[in-house]
Amino acid sequence: MSLPAPRVLYSYSHAATGFAARLTSRQAAHLAGQRSVLAVVPDVMQQLHTTLTPSFLGLSESSGLLPASNGASDVVIGVLDTGVYPIDRVAFAADPSLPPPPGKFRGACLVGAKVFYKGYEVDFGGPINETEESKSPLDTLGHGTHTASTAAGSAVPDAAFYGYARGNAVGMAPGARVASYKVCWKYGCATSDILAAFDEAIADGVDGIIVSAAAGNSGPVESTAINIAPWLLTVGASSINRRFPADVVLGNGDTFSGASLYAGPPLGATDVPLVYGRTAGSKTCEAERLNASLVAGKIVLCDPGVIAAQRDVE
């Protein structure tokens, strides 16, 4: 019985010398046995893991780095993520005071925006569902737009999150240009697509490659950090000199102080019933396990645990 012909997805020549292809296990084993082949590596899916920060880090004062710099206007930052959505975004608005993009950049708008999905579609056995996400450099998940603006977003006066943390938001290199390479989709990022984007970014002339990778969300106990190789810049959330205090006052008068970023309608002066998540189906308040009839119109008390960043309880 004849084997299906291999399907080449990408050919790499800048970040590495090689190619990505769809192979049977027999074809991959045969290829790995060739003396001219260094390695055959399976394609795997990777997962995607504020306004006061510049002044908190001492960057905004007269002696800080931001006033002393040109905002990195001669730098092109390559962002490999879920794309970017610059339309009607102040952080990506055109700045007439900036000089033209560096002549060394050979990419194509931002100063470049490209998309990579061949590996993702092979891994999932079919085309991307374009009713759910855009098969273009436009960001439909929000992650890439967030990271790109953190790196190089222009100043956004009077920015706030539902009225919280009001101030002037700005990226760390507001004069830099962004070259966006969309490699991540709804269910992850194929390594073959990531390497293809690296290869393209090098060919386009972005300014170097610094791999900034998340420490992960499995902590804070020992041995929970990931991406700890010495050649990576491993990053995670840290403390900042800003608090959002809020008090919970029980019916018996006991008061518990904490923090809140509640963005729903005002609760008013009337008492709101309190229910413990364990008695309503999930002590850690997993939305899909909570009994809706038991938590409707109530504040749900949750035990600490690994839960999603946002849980809406109606």
From TrEMBL:
- Alphabetic keyword roster: Signal
Pfam families per the UniProt record, alphabetical: Inhibitor_I9 (PF05922), Peptidase_S8 (PF00082)
Q: Where is the Inhibitor I9 domain?
A: 6-49
Peptidase S8/S53 domain: which residues? 73-226
The cross-references to CDD domains, in alphabetical order and at most eight, read: PA_subtilisin_like (cd02120)
| One of the protein's GO biological processes | proteolysis
- Superkingdom of this protein's organism: Eukaryota
Under SUPFAM superfamilies, the record lists: Subtilisin-like
GO molecular-function annotation terms? serine-type endopeptidase activity
Per the record, the similarity remark reads: Belongs to the peptidase S8 family.
User: What is the protein's given name?
Assistant: Subtilisin-like protease
Supply the source organism's classification. Eukaryota, Viridiplantae, Streptophyta, Embryophyta, Tracheophyta
